[in-house]
Structures are given as C-alpha cells and as structure tokens.
Amino acid sequence: MPDSKRKKTLVLQKQPMPRQDPRERIHNFYEVALGYPEEAARAEAERCLQCKKSPCITGCPVEIDIPSFVASIKEGDYAGAIRKIKDKNCLPAICGRVCPQEDQCEKVCVLGVKGEPVAVGRLERFAADYEMANLRSDPPARPAPTGKKAAVVGSGPAGLTVAGDLVKLGHEVTIFEALHKAGGVLVYGIPEFRLPKAVVQREVDYVASLGVELRLDTVIGKLLTVDDLFAMGYQAVFLANGAGLPTFMDIPGENLNGVYSANEYLTRSNLMKAYLFPEYDTPIIRGRDVAVVGGGNVAMDSVRTALRLGAENACIIYRRSRAEMPARHEEIENAAEEGVQFVMLTNPVRILGNERGWVKGIECVKMELGEPDESGRRRPVPVPDSEHQIAVDIVVMAVGNGANPLVASTTPGLAVNRWGNIIADPETGQTSKDGVFAGGDIVTGAATVISAMGAGRKAARAMDAYLRAI
Predict the structure, then answer these.
(1) Which partner for 29 in 44, 109, 192, 403 could form a disulfide, CB atoms 3.0-4.6 Å apart?
(2) How many domains does the chain have?
(3) Contact yes or no for 103/50 (Cβ under 8 A)
C-alpha cells in the first residue's frame, strides 16, 4: 500500500519529559524539567494530526500557528519552527516552560479526545532552546518608522509583548521598569528551578534587539507620572505594572517575625538571589519547619523553594481538597515527589509566637466542602471544635495579590474597580483616560503569563490604530 494511503497509527501518550531526580533536585536550584532531546521532540511532533480546523490556534491567547511549527519540528526544520512561533510570540522559551497549555491550546487538541493531547508547550520550549543553543536569533527587518512614540510601564509578559508588537509595526517604544532587572514577575516571582533567569534575560534581550528601549530603576508614580510621560512626547501609554501588592489573611500573629508574604519570600530568593547568600548579600530565613498557606502556583513555588533552602519539613496548608487546588497538576506532582506535605481541608486562624516575637506555630481549623461558590468550587466550611496547632518556624502567605495603587493614584482620570484594578476594555485595553491602555494582572488580577501576553497582543493592535489616527 502506498504511504499516502496508509492510515496513521495514533500514539495516545505524550513523550515523557526528562526531569531531575527529586532526591537530587531538592538540594539545588537547577531546572527540574530538562527539555526534550531531538529524537523525543520529533516523535512528539509526529503525533500531531494536522487538523484542518486547528482548534489549538484559537486556544492560544497569542494565536501561534501551532500545526505549522509542529510540522516543522517533525521535518527537522527547527529554524523554521522558531520563525513561525516568533511571528506571534516573542517569549517562546518562557511560554514553553510556565504557560498552562493544559488549559489552553492542549485543552482543545483533537488528539486529546482519545488520549493525551500533543505536548505543545514542550515542543515550543524545544524549538526555543534549540535556537538559543544552535542558531543566531536575528530580529526581523525593521519597518519604516511611523514617527509615533509609545511608553510601556512594566517589563513583565504583557509589557514585553505589547512593546515587541508595537516596535515591529514601526513605532518607537520605551519600557519603564521599576526594578533593576527587566522581566517583572518572570524574574521576581518564578523560581530558578522552574524558569532560569538566563532564559528570561535572553528573551528580554531579543525584545530589546527589535528596537525597544529599556529604562530600569524607574518607578512610574514616583519618579515620573503617566502625565509626565505624555509631556515627554509619548503619545500612548500601556500600563502593565502587574498585581504585586501582597495579600494577607488578616488573622492574629501575621506581624510576627518569620511570617512572609509570598511576594517577599520569592523576590528575595529569585531576583535578589538570597539562596546564594553570602555571595549575594540578601539574607533570608532558612526555616526548619515551613508552612505555606495557599493552593496555587505561587504556593507551590514557595514551598519548593523552602525545601531547597534547607527546610526539613515543608507543608502546604489549603482550605479545600487537593482536587480543587488551582496550581498546575505537574507542579503539584513535582512538589509531592520532592517531599512536600499536603495538609488539606485546613484553614489557619492564628499564628503563634514565642516570647521573642518569632513564629513557633500555626493554629488551624478543619474544613469540609459545602455548596459551590462563585468560582464553581465547593465552598469550604469550618468544622466545629476542630482547632489544632502545627509547629512551624516560618509561615509564607500565598493567598493572592492585589493591585499596587501607585500608578492609579497618581493618574487623574484613570478608573479602577473596587479591588483597585485598572478598568480596561478586554478587547483593546483602552482605559478611561485617552491614550492610556492597560493589560495583564493590573487589569485582571493575578493570572497566567500567557493571558497577560494575550492582553498585550490585543492592546498593541488597538494602540497601533490609535497612534496612526492622531
């Protein structure tokens, strides 16, 4: 029978991702997932059905032509694969590592009806890593300049995306970043073992190579205001300053020594490299018994960081069951392999301190699940007379983030909602203030890297139209 007539045999299981042994990785900050070797990448790409309707493209917030880049990997054309990805995504090495593809492109993969979907994220990472190791990352030719200038506040995923898109459309773009390193949550919020800083820096360098100017150590709302940016000649401003305000539970004892917000705990470790103290002079408490309160990816990042900092016992305290945890399944799995203890259906009510003002324990109550709440998950309800104590010396609160009010409070005419998030059109990013657009976590609250990038992509289109019309 000719090859063209032969029916393709479906391979229902993904190629496994090589990973560090958990017994070794809990003692280092090296990357846990090691990436596909070439043979595995091509075998995984072979699984793609190359569907005519390609639902995976519509499932991708930045609209990557997934079947095309996967086909290129299948044929061994890795340069072609990365070109196709970068047509739509200037941060592929990041997205391939931390984006929740299982809830986006892979969720709608046709192959997933009968087996496991194509490992789109792992293939995207393979293409990006191959380029970094073997190819020159030449930026595309620059278009004719439009003479229009745009400012971007924040260099996280939304800011980098909108800046990259706008400069490729011919506009002059400057990113203003408050910290001393560009990358936003990518550098201060995600641990080295999940997203190496060198990878983020290479992606930032690529965006800069497109022609984007980066101004670091510049706090908008303090050093400059949004109105100052307009006075400096910028004709449009995109606000991508994230949702980095720590949230606490407002329970007794949260002001004790040894209680961290996840923001501070991860920023000290990630951006300020406290895990390399004293080589980097940013101390961090290395607890023996560490409790992390929360069930999302930030909680997983925090508790796994605690283990690597030397904790003998590290636990997650979460008020629902493991099935309701919002963290990615693979991050929960990795944490369990590394020895993290999961204390489920449990809610803290008080943090206990010793006579010196340091944490010595956490008092909790047992919970049971009642009727679904507005999130669709069953509401946790306290069990009467179930108070108990857990001995810990460090508590990390990973229960969410809020919107930092600095930019909004210094920008007259900029509307915010009752949580302090900037109100913006979800399709254009347009805010209540003329010429000001916004996207990412500062609009939606804490969400995913790729959703922030999707907001940047939409806003770039709207900002391009706005700039060309003035």
Answers:
(1) 192
(2) 3
(3) no
Interatomic CA distance for residues 342 and 292, integer angstroms: 10
152-209 pLDDT, tens digit per residue, is: 999 999 999 999 999 999 999 999 999 999 999 999 999 999 999 999 999 999 999 9
Three-state DSSP at 119 gives coil
- Sequence-distant (≥ 6) Cβ neighbours of residue 103 within 8 angstroms: none
In angstroms, the CA 200 to CA 319 distance is: 33
Q: How far apart are CA 382 and CA 162, in angstroms?
A: 45
In angstroms, the CA 155 to CA 176 distance is 7
- Could you tell me if residue 191 is inside a domain? yes
Domain range enclosing 39: 9-134
| 262 shares a domain with 327 | yes
Cα 245 to chain center, whole Å? 16
Name the pTM for this structure.
0.92
- What is the CATH classification number for the domain harbouring 25? 1.10.1060.10
Alpha helices in 271-418 (DSSP H): 297-308, 329-337, 406-409
Do 253 and 395 lie in one domain? The reply is: yes
Q: What is the largest CA-CA distance in the chain?
A: 82
Rg of the chain (C-alpha set): 23
Cα–Cα distance for residue pair 47/111, rounded to 1 Å: 8
Buried b (16+ CB within 10 A) or exposed e, 352-388: bbeeeeebbbbbbbbbebeeeeeeeebebeeeeeeee
- C-alpha triplet 116, 117, 121: angle, nearest 5°: 125
CB 387 within 8 A of CB 349: yes
Same structural domain for residues 262 and 391?
yes
Find, among 428, 426, 89, 5, the residue nearest to 236 by Cα.
428
Chain centre to alpha carbon of residue 370: 31
Of all residues in the chain, what percent carry a pLDDT higher than 70?
98
Let me know: does 265 contact 299? Beta carbons within 8 Å.
no
